[in-house]
Please model this.
Amino acid sequence: MKYKQQIMSPQDIVILLKIIAINNEKWQQLDLAHTLGISQSEVSKSIVRSKYAGLIDPSGKKVFKLALLDFLKSGITYVFPQKPGSLVKGIPTAHSALPLSSQIVSNEHYVWPSARGTLRGQAIEPLYPSVIKAVESDATLYELLALVDTLRVGKAREKAMAIKALERLFFDAKSTNEGRNLLVL
Model:
């Protein structure tokens, strides 16, 4: 029997967060692929990896939110580490983006490098390059990804605040994209 190791990829986290942002078990892989700018085959492979890791149910439609939160709290920093880079213009992320930017005052800003960005800060590479475009029409996904970046690069206090915000977004039924403002760049 040939053994093939299942290794998580950064886009797996993006896909799981998008499923949470959708907050509806009737999503289709093709729609998910289109909105994230990821090929449908990569979405399919990602779902298989997430099932194997115990982060999504056997149907591949419902994220095990507690398991994902546990992974994000304990593992994201080590599995997908990030060191802030040079100063660039970009889209705010980590504590420089909502919801944490309204609670944390800092002269140190983090951004996803982008000519369409609104802030100058240290470069943070997003988990997957296409998220910069994907978050333009999905405020919840943007918040989730920014909070995950806080876990990747933040200090202890910022990480604790990010975990509380993730818990709210994961488990508060009112925290869906319905009625939320879209990100305007």
Notes: The helical segments are 10-22, 29-36, 40-53, 65-74, 76-79, 131-134, 139-153, 156-171. Residues 175-185 have pLDDT under 50 and may be disordered. The chain has two domains: 10-79, 87-171.
